[in-house]
């Protein structure tokens, strides 16, 4: 799995990357009630410009990404100063208020997540095969404090020739996340001509012990 992603980045096969912030992020994030200054976890972040958008909207960002190429390209395309350090087995690259941790999301643990208060998942859940999605939803929940909110963009496809991206139905999103999150369906996008890809947007809030 990991080597497939590393190969993709080395070979530039990154059709999932968007050259502008995702419209669902721009539309819905301001309505989630997440306070400016809240640190946002972005698992499987690639070199997404959504992180730049979050950073510009007063959110410190912590992205986690396997591929060093993605991180180098992200900071290379930015203009601010870059600093680098190593912590807990991750090489970290910081630019403005975005810090990118290079490594496996499943090796990132609660001790490292101390200041995180929100999350953003676009094309992270749907990049993972079914058994790993279960693990992902659980791991994400472990990293977030009660009350932490986030936005998740899932995807289904009519022509299912395997993945990634994988089809993740609305039922599956609910099954995976409802045990640990309050889950609200916000919208379904238009199916994309040709691929039949259709995105769904979800707001989530980490449950506490009694809700
Ligand atoms: C479909 S891409 C989405 C990237 C980004 N979220 C976006 O919207 O452009 C999935 C990314 O997850 C990374 N990835 C896959 N498995 C990972 C893991 N276990 N830990 C960290 N990153 C991972 C891949 O290298 C790839 O960049």
UniProtKB/TrEMBL annotation:
<dbReference type="InterPro" id="IPR025835">
    <property type="entry name" value="Thiopurine_S-MeTrfase"/>
</dbReference>
<comment type="similarity">
    <text>Belongs to the class I-like SAM-binding methyltransferase superfamily. TPMT family.</text>
</comment>
<keyword id="KW-0489">Methyltransferase</keyword>
<dbReference type="GO" id="GO:0008119">
    <property type="term" value="F:thiopurine S-methyltransferase activity"/>
</dbReference>
<keyword id="KW-0808">Transferase</keyword>
<dbReference type="GO" id="GO:0005737">
    <property type="term" value="C:cytoplasm"/>
</dbReference>
<dbReference type="GO" id="GO:0032259">
    <property type="term" value="P:methylation"/>
</dbReference>
<feature type="binding site">
    <location>
        <position position="65"/>
    </location>
    <ligand>
        <name>S-adenosyl-L-methionine</name>
    </ligand>
</feature>
<feature type="binding site">
    <location>
        <position position="122"/>
    </location>
    <ligand>
        <name>S-adenosyl-L-methionine</name>
    </ligand>
</feature>
<feature type="binding site">
    <location>
        <position position="9"/>
    </location>
    <ligand>
        <name>S-adenosyl-L-methionine</name>
    </ligand>
</feature>
<dbReference type="InterPro" id="IPR008854">
    <property type="entry name" value="TPMT"/>
</dbReference>
<dbReference type="Pfam" id="PF05724">
    <property type="entry name" value="TPMT"/>
</dbReference>
<dbReference type="InterPro" id="IPR029063">
    <property type="entry name" value="SAM-dependent_MTases_sf"/>
</dbReference>
<protein>
    <recommendedName>
        <fullName>Thiopurine S-methyltransferase</fullName>
        <ecNumber>2.1.1.67</ecNumber>
    </recommendedName>
</protein>
<keyword id="KW-0963">Cytoplasm</keyword>
<feature type="binding site">
    <location>
        <position position="44"/>
    </location>
    <ligand>
        <name>S-adenosyl-L-methionine</name>
    </ligand>
</feature>
<keyword id="KW-0949">S-adenosyl-L-methionine</keyword>
């Amino acid at each position: 799995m990991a080597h497939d992603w590393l190969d993709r980045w080395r070979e530039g096969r990154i059709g999932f990357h968007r050259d502008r912030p995702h419209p669902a992020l721009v539309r819905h994030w301001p309505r989630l009630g997440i306070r400016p200054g809240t640190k946002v976890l972005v698992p499987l972040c690639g070199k997404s410009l959504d992180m730049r958008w979050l950073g510009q909207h007063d959110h410190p960002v912590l992205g986690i990404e396997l591929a060093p190429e993605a991180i180098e390209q992200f900071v290379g395309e930015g203009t601010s100063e870059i600093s680098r350090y190593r912590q807990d087995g991750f090489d970290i690259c910081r630019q403005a208020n975005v810090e990118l941790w290079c490594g496996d999301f499943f090796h990132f643990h609660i001790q490292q997540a101390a200041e995180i208060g929100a999350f953003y998942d676009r094309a992270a859940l749907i990049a993972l095969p079914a058994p790993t999605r279960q693990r992902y939803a659980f791991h994400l929940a472990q990293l977030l404090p009660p009350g932490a909110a986030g936005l998740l963009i899932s995807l289904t496809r009519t022509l299912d020739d395997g993945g990634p991206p994988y089809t993740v139905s609305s039922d599956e999103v609910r099954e995976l996340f409802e045990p640990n999150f309050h889950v609200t369906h916000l919208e379904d996008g238009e199916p994309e001509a040709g691929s039949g890809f259709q995105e769904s947007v979800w707001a989530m809030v980490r449950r506490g012990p009694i809700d």
